[in-house]
Amino acid sequence: MITSFNNSITKLFNIQYPIVQAGMVWTSGWKLASAVSNAGGLGLMGSGSMYPDVLKQHIQKCKAATSKPFGVNIPLIYPDVEKHIQTVIDEEIKIVFTSAGNPKKYTSILKQHGITVVHVVSSSAFALKAEDAGCDAVVAEGFEAGGHNGREETTTMVLIPLVREAVKIPLLAAGGIATGRQMLAAMILGADGVQIGSRFVCSDEASNHASFKQAIIKSKEGDTMLSMKKLIPVRLLKNNFYTMINEAESKGAAKETIAELLGHGRAKKGMLEGDLNDGELEIGEVSALIKNIKPAIEIVDEIWNEFDKAVKNPFSFNQ
């Protein structure tokens, strides 16, 4: 068995495996991030659902829980993004993933403090902008991904080779990846590693509600859909809230109407508090493949062991 991997991603983050756990709202706190980092991957905390003082607390707890590298994901549409930027600088975080916005302004600020910066993109055009902004790597996230998604609706299988041709910096693939075989497929297409979100939602350490985890492992093909395209496209598990939004969109509702229906705290209501009917349940298409809840270390080991076997015998599905 391959016990470690040596490429541009593992060197960039000083990690054992080129596996990054996505920084997801209401899911990725210090417990999950530290567990993934201790397992040999790179754990990220999702700051988009944290107030600045809460982020500081999570960072300090993560430092106490692991001596391995970890990072913070900062959505650039966060209302107090400057405060989060200052928090990661003050707390001497070494790795920051930015998403949902233009990385140009904050990348230079972060790099002035010796921080490795990675930006999440949904197209080769945005990947080029991230490279030009000075980012150290990009995450190319395909249409299959959960949560906020690209308007281009480009699938991961198409997006990865497009981005690989466009940029020279290291590339992480995301969207529709939960297994070792999917990881190998992404790397054959040109990725240097993977960022995985949905699989880690169904981990013991994930902070989202147990009812949400159960809904994910019960889900089947077609149970997620990209929604709210007039705002910021979000892939959701279908429920009453999704149906309400879908009906409004099918009738040509304006952006303002969709925003009013969304309201405030909808994702917290669904993902953290477990309202499976009227909450916003952000998850990827790959949820149909997720059938159990495990500790993060077992998830990392499972992905890596399957990757290792697939590398050695890619055409055997029974070993």
Task: Please provide a written account of the structure.
The strands form two sheets. The chain has an eight-stranded parallel sheet with strand order 1-9-8-6-5-4-3-2. A three-stranded antiparallel sheet has the order 7-11-10, covered by helices on one side. It is globular, with a radius of gyration of 18 Å. The protein has 14 helices and eleven strands. The chain folds into two domains: 8-207 and 290-312, TIM Barrel (Alpha-Beta Barrel), CATH 3.20.20; 210-286, no CATH class. Helix content is 42%, strand content 15%. The chain has 319 residues and is of the alpha/beta class. The relative contact order is 0.13. The model has no long low-confidence stretch (mean pLDDT 95).
Count of helical stretches: 14
| Tally of distinct domains | 2
Q: Portion of residues in helices? A: 40-55%
CATH architecture of the largest domain: Alpha-Beta Barrel
Shape: globular
Name the average pLDDT: 95
Q: What's the count of strands?
A: 11
CATH class of the largest domain: Alpha Beta
Q: Which consecutive residue ranges, at least 5 long each, have pLDDT under 50?
A: none
Any idea what the CATH superfamily of the largest domain is called?
A: Aldolase class I
What distance separates the N and C termini?
Answer: 14 Å
The name CATH uses for the topology of the largest domain is TIM Barrel
Q: What share of residues are in beta strands?
A: 5-15%
- Rounded to the nearest angstrom, the radius of gyration is 18 Å
For the sheet with most strands, the description reads: 8 strands, parallel
Strand order of the largest sheet: 1-9-8-6-5-4-3-2
Strand-pairing-aware structural class:
alpha/beta
Q: Could you spell the SSE succession in H and E letters?
A: HEHEHEHEHEHEEHEHEHHEEHHHH
